[in-house]
Amino acid sequence: MPFQLFILLSLLCALLPLHHGAPGPDGSAPDPAHYRERVKAMFYHAYDSYLENAFPFDELRPLTCDGHDTWGSFSLTLIDALDTLLILGNVSEFQRVVEVLQDNVDFDIDVNASVFETNIRVVGGLLSAHLLSKKAGVEVEAGWPCSGPLLRMAEEAARKLLPAFQTPTGMPYGTVNLLHGVNLGETPVTCTAGIGTFIVEFATLSSLTGDPVFEDVARVALMRLWESRSDIGLVGNHIDVLTGKWVAQDAGIGAGVDSYFEYLVKGAILLQDKKLMAMFLEYNKAIRNYTRFDDWYLWVQMYKGTVSMPVFQSLEAYWPGLQSLIGDIDNAMRTFLNYYTVWKQFGGLPEFYNIPQGYTVEKREGYPLRPELIESAMYLYRATGDPTLLELGRDAVESIEKISKVECGFATIKDLRDHKLDNRMESFFLAETVKYLYLLFDPTNFIHNNGSTFDTVITPYGECILGAGGYIFNTEAHPIDPAALHCCRRLKEEQWEVEDLMREFYSLKRNRSRFRKKTVSSGPWEPPAGPGTLFSPENYDQVREKKPAKQKIPLLSCPSQPFTSKLALLGQVFLDSS
């Protein structure tokens, strides 16, 4: 090579920008500002493609540039992407979509819908958007956040799911017809996550509307699972909701079980519930004792603890993030680094990975652009600031853009070995994957608020504080402001007080009548059945006894935590003993 040409090429190389996927020359972490803009561009490429080619269908088919209904014909991608729009700063599109959803979404339809998916995507997405509406500049109605069109939509959708909980065990069916209820002959076998993933959305709904039925059914389902665990403290994968007998007895932290454990932790934080946290910590002991091997988590037989599947599932990658929420950072990082090696091996996480063989499992080689490893990176980066976590974010952006980007959005990767694509873009790509990537690279986002700013809101029940931080993400990455649950609580307490007064009144009236020797009914007073009431009058006393103790919460103050776990505004719960 001529010397002059060598000098010219050297100068050109010096002037060219570094490869976006590499750290700087000093080994520095990826530039957050650069990747933040890359992630935003990814979102709009996918979002605009959905609007142009797939709306009003649920999801985009990116290879054929059209749409299809997948989970119930709700324009699901639009609901799932709504709060992501605000996190990216697009208030005008948020406002437009709120109007579109009010005009176009109808839940009174003859469709068989997944109870689990409808809850986490539709109910969760609408609740989150409702609580973020004021921040997005939407003109909210009087009484917000205790009322509003998106809240009414969320309540309507949730009521459509309530018939699924009418089982002898209180554990719900997996599918419900939105018009007719549970179909005759519907299978009673439901996965564990499909039973234990309601407390975040349903407790929020009960707190905002004043109707306790949602939280009640969610708590009953959680308790039935807890009571069904094996003698060694593990739960299986699928259970018969009519008999309470386990059908699939594989125990692990992945598919079919995952968000049950997640909601015990997040429900404990959201509701300041000591019992839910204690339940998770007991499970955590059993999981460490029987399923953890060298910071991997295997599948075992729930009664014996013997290994049944030595595989890592991509859905398990949420676990390090969950560990960070209870302050177990060291274990979380070790497990995260194991999972990250798999990502680096394939440019994504295959659905199943055989740990002893170090390779994919047949027919489970795909990567549908799942968020779980990125979710864990976001949580751990907030806790540690470790630049390795930004490197995962960088690798995710580079891999997704290189492998799955097509003209009409981003396609599911059917096979990570040869990069074949599938004709689907799941709504969680915009709800979760892009959102967690953006939050990883945006340290000043309002979601990460440390309490230094907040909004004071006047409600019919007094003043409350919103937007101070500590958001709880549901399992579809829809953020719930925990402070909002206190804004409307007086409505719920007053409802119970009225019921108590009515009981006392009827009791006095009955006693007075007996004293006068008048003929009276000997049965107990039966409260009028309100909308959505699932409990028979004879069981009403039992249900009412479960209401939480009343807490007098001073206005303009944050309620103090009544148990040992402490919620930090940076998104962690640390135990006192840590």
UniProtKB/TrEMBL annotation:
Top enzyme class: hydrolase
PANTHER family, per the entry: ER DEGRADATION-ENHANCING ALPHA-MANNOSIDASE-LIKE PROTEIN 2 (PTHR45679:SF6)
EC number: 3.2.1.-
Positions annotated to bind Ca(2+): T475
Highest taxon above the source species: Eukaryota
Active site: E117, D258, E351, E372
GO terms for MF: hydrolase activity, acting on glycosyl bonds
Main function: Involved in the endoplasmic reticulum-associated degradation (ERAD) pathway that targets misfolded glycoproteins for degradation in an N-glycan-dependent manner. May initiate ERAD by promoting the first mannose trimming step of ERAD substrates, from Man9GlcNAc2 to Man8GlcNAc2. Seems to recognize and bind to exposed hydrophobic regions in target proteins.
Subcellular location: Endoplasmic reticulum
Family membership noted in the UniProt record: Belongs to the glycosyl hydrolase 47 family.
Keywords, ordered alphabetically: Calcium, Endoplasmic reticulum, Glycoprotein, Glycosidase, Hydrolase, Metal-binding, Signal, Unfolded protein response
InterPro entries with a match to the protein in the record: 6hp_glycosidase-like_sf, EDEM1/2/3, Glyco_hydro_47, Seven-hairpin_glycosidases
Name of the protein described by the UniProt record: alpha-1,2-Mannosidase
GO terms of biological process kind: positive regulation of retrograde protein transport, ER to cytosol; response to unfolded protein
